[in-house]
Specification:
Creatine Amidinohydrolase, Chain A, domain 1, 21 strands, about 35% helix, about 400 residues, 6-stranded mixed β-sheet, alpha+beta, Creatine Amidinohydrolase, homodimer
């Protein structure tokens, strides 16, 4: 059952729920849509699963591209149903979809939970019965295929190379009056982020955003960082680019140029221990629970005297979950938190323990792993050291 | 009626449609949500309009921020209804929303057209009647308020300054063996885009993407451009950053370092004429139709012998609409196309005629304007010249 394709899952749920078809209408950029069809479009389009076949309904200008790229059995054009440009006109779109579905022997339609209520109303007006089904697409997405794993490895390899490059820039920079200089230029969060972005761009990865936070700025996990980078303080880097395949990389390291305070060194060592402990739990492989990974991390931190979110809202210590699944979205379910269930073979997750303190800044170490039958494979090889 | 607030519009439609309340549940980043509440969140939240009051239901960690930022009359927390973290758990979210709405005297609920069908089903299960209403939020968004106009002016001013900076870099660059050099570095699309991005970052604008396309690459309006910039060829720049207010800038110019072929010069002059003609139509002010602006542009191009999309699918000439509304989204309705209706006072639109040819590249000139009672105000002052 783990090996079931998303189409198999759809066909099974249609049978179980006594439905004739599954219809999904979404933005062309939607990741569930891309997963289900292999096709990414500029405009919304419709997916129909009917009698074990997948049929797309796309705008006329996208028909050729859809035929080339998509995994669907058939691609049809809205030009068969209407003339002219119907973008922004949801009423016209609804009529087209009703006409399209009406060409098949369909009475009872299953749709995803986030199907637009308006479309459902219009289809019901046309005599169809419409109701939501379980989220089989996201369920299928949790177990990555071999080709998805290859894309994620590529994305994370480029991310790791850019982290090496960032480390190199910090290493090669000089310290003048308590500020880092790279060449003749003051090294700021903005400049280092731009170096990382340019580096990734040459490796088919787009970086919209990245955290490059220095000193106490790094104590807030949501602060992207800005301004001058300084020695003897943490420089927290969290790099998460999107590879041209659509899959994401995501990796964090924390560096210090010089010597940080003893309290920071302790935070770093404890985070490293938590990382080792989390990976040790994951080495049991498929069947281990996400909660047990998170609990282990919390145990390490709490034994060392740091509070964790397991105790509720805290303002220092571990402020976030231990990780999240990743794929066509940067953050996918499941997350490594309290209550998280069993991890299966093929789940790809970040593991990212961290400690934060308003007086000393933050530490985060983050790798990406895939769960295997009897362990895990770490997509990262980058050492866990703060010294550059 | 043009001056009606979005809340007035909601109250009116609730009365007309005999509904007790309007409920909107969306991602925290959704722009309709932000418009309606003044609040942008990390997680999905719920907006309720009931008895002429606006009430928000947000995650506990976002309550204080919502109280500070939002325009709502009251902010409530999901902690009143459930304990623990319910992100990723749509079933729990649905129960919370049903409990929340159930605290008021509500039977008949109006929701936006893209309301999740699953939530509607769950609310119906709890005895509420749920149906979609006209999109009054997007309708209200078309007419920008004074404070929105101020944000859009700020965004477009920063965009124009970054365009000046880009022009300056091209002007100051030297030509070596048919390639542009800025200082010691080859000037590529990527580098120029990074210069623009850094410049905008210092002016509270984030630039995810921008078109910097040289030569025949500029003939494809969707090509962002890459690689070496060359003299005597068009360099098409389309810069669209998001200002920290949430509002977008959007501006295009086409430059040539040196002397372009005569055919390009003709394309440029014709595009400039089309721009002048479009602005001339807009000088009639509110009441003019979007179609008449587009038709005028098409007329200029067609008289000069260039095909336009008014003739259907074309592969050279004018390949896109003449412009689009802009605000919290980069592209908002209405667009300046065939069939577009009357423009009202306060509509903010891009005006962007362009010509494309696989042999000579592309030209696009794009300004942002606001429609006024008896004309328009152009947010741009940048000259229409290709010479740098």
């Amino acid at each position: 059952m783990g090996e079931m394709s998303v189409e198999d899952r759809l066909d099974r749920i249609l049978t179980t729920e006594e439905l004739n078809a599954f219809v999904q209408y979404k933005e062309g950029s939607d990741t569930n849509h891309k997963y289900l069809t292999g096709f990414q479009a500029s405009d919304p389009f419709t997916y129909l699963r009917y009698e074990n076949r997948s049929i797309l309904l796309v705008a006329p200008v996208e028909k050729a591209k859809a035929e080339n790229q998509s995994t669907a059995d058939e691609v049809r054009s809205t030009a068969e149903f209407v003339s002219g440009d119907v973008r922004d006109d949801i009423e016209a779109e609804a009529s087209i979809i009703a006409d399209f579905v009406g060409e098949y022997e369909i009475e009872r339609i299953g749709v995803p939970r986030d199907f637009d209520l308006y479309l459902a109303e219009r289809l019901e007006d046309e005599g169809f019965s419409v109701r939501t089904v379980d989220d089989v697409v996201m369920e299928a997405r949790k177990r990555k295929s071999e080709s998805e794993l290859a894309h994620l490895r590529d994305a994370q390899r480029a991310t790791e190379r850019s982290m090496e490059r960032a480390q190199e820039i910090i290493r090669e920079s000089s310290v003048v009056d308590g500020e880092l200089f790279y060449g003749d230029e003051r090294l700021t969060s903005e400049r280092l982020r731009n170096h990382i972005r340019e580096f990734l761009m040459d490796r088919q990865c787009a970086l919209d955003e990245a955290i490059v936070a220095c000193g106490t700025r790094s104590a807030d996990p949501h602060d992207r960082g800005s301004g001058i980078l300084r020695p003897d303080e943490p420089i927290l880097l969290d790099i998460f680019p999107q590879h041209e395949s659509g899959y994401w990389g995501d990796m964090s390291r924390t560096f210090v140029k010089g010597t940080p305070p003893e309290e920071f060194q302790e935070m770093y060592e404890t985070t490293r221990e938590a990382m080792d402990a989390a990976l040790n739990v994951l080495s049991e492989g498929a069947g281990v629970t996400g909660q047990s990974v998170h609990d282990t991390v919390c145990d390490v931190f709490e034994s060392a005297g740091y509070p964790t979110i397991r105790d509720g809202d805290v303002d220092r210590g571990l402020l976030h979950s231990t990780g999240h699944a990743i794929g066509l979205d940067l953050h996918e379910p499941p997350r490594l938190v309290q209550g998280a269930g069993e991890l299966e073979e093929g789940y790809v997750l970040t593991v990212e323990p961290g400690l934060y303190d308003d007086d000393y800044g933050g530490v985060r170490i983050e790798d990406m792993i895939v769960v295997t039958e009897d362990g895990y494979e770490n997509f990262n090889q980058f050492a866990y050291d703060y010294q550059v």
